[in-house]
Amino acid sequence: MSVAPMLDWTDRHCRYLHRLLTRHALLYTEMVTTGALLHGDVQRHLRFDAAEHPVALQLGGSEPADLARCARLAQEWGYDEVNLNCGCPSERVQRGAFGACLMAEPRLVADCVRAMVEAVQLPVTVKHRIGIDRVEDYGFVRDFVGTVAEGGCRVFIVHARNAWLKGLSPKENREVPPLRYEMVARLKRDFPELVIAINGGIASDEAVRGQLAVVDGVMVGREAYHNPWWLASWDRQFLGQPGPGLSREEVEDAMVAYMEREAAQHGTPWQAVARHMLGLRAGLPGARRWRQVWSDHRLKPLPAREVMALARARP
């Protein structure tokens, strides 16, 4: 079980929340480009809390040497896995010649993987789509996986939709191309020696169980973010392990303590953390008011603990 890398969502604050709910699910960073790491603020991009383990760094790039250097940084900073993004369809990513457009160049992807595998002891994995544009032939994704596996990749996370490189926004690319789960199951049958995980539209216990019957892993994106309490059952239900066992109130208490530490150590405003937990009480009586209090911009000057007291107060 894992939580998908989601730009602007799965930052270190979000991952800290998720780790309070599940001990064993793998957490992914937002995609970080090789250029941002090699020419930008490494600490800003790579800093994370030790409590987040196991955590994977997702990289965006297409130059083997640059990816190898960034994989070494990931290892130095203590990440548990390096993942190459071959699934993002946005035009901004395409201009950098990486993301989903890399699926058209499997030999290059294999070279990128090989360079990272040779540079680090960490697992190197690839996240990709089942096709690009209107190429819906199974042979396309089969040959992509087979070629990239030659570079040393043993784990493939497959978003079970095509990526349309023109004509659809990133949001539409998560919704318009049809889900074709059978393609991912077929990959597992054709490559039994590889670890094949599935991503895309999975939002219930029943859906997870159905997929785990035919593939090796399930990655959940938006549902995990908007309904984080679901993660509290993952360890026990799907991983056969005890979870943290915290109540919603205990999770909120822990997040406020985290907000206070972040403010003291790094000057982080509590709102930057609180935005990720707005779905924590989804479906409960009073959830709407609780969410409104935590997202009320007029309360920004107050300490986080006072905001929590207001959120919990009876109307």
Automatic annotation (TrEMBL):
InterPro entries: Aldolase_TIM, DUS-like_FMN-bd, DUS_fam, DusA, tRNA_hU_synthase_CS
Main EC class the enzyme belongs to: oxidoreductase
Site (Interacts with tRNA): 85, 171, 174, 288, 291
First and last residue of the signal peptide: none
Active-site residues, record numbering mapped to chain: 88 (proton donor)
DUS-like FMN-binding domain residues: 3-297
Protein's UniProt keywords contain NAD: no
UniProt key word NADP: yes
GO molecular function terms attached to this record: flavin adenine dinucleotide binding; FMN binding; tRNA binding; tRNA-dihydrouridine20 synthase activity; tRNA-dihydrouridine20a synthase activity
Swiss-Prot/TrEMBL keywords: Flavoprotein, FMN, NADP, Nucleotide-binding, Oxidoreductase, RNA-binding, tRNA processing, tRNA-binding
Binding site for FMN: 5-7, 58, 127, 159, 199-201, 221-222
Names of the cofactor(s): FMN
Function statement: Catalyzes the synthesis of 5,6-dihydrouridine (D), a modified base found in the D-loop of most tRNAs, via the reduction of the C5-C6 double bond in target uridines. Specifically modifies U20 and U20a in tRNAs.
NCBIfam families xrefs: PRK11815.1 (NF008774), yjbN (TIGR00742)
PANTHER family for the chain: FMN-LINKED OXIDOREDUCTASES SUPERFAMILY PROTEIN
Sequence similarity: Belongs to the Dus family. DusA subfamily.
Protein name per UniProt: tRNA-dihydrouridine(20/20a) synthase
Organism for this UniProt entry: Melaminivora alkalimesophila
Gene field: dusA
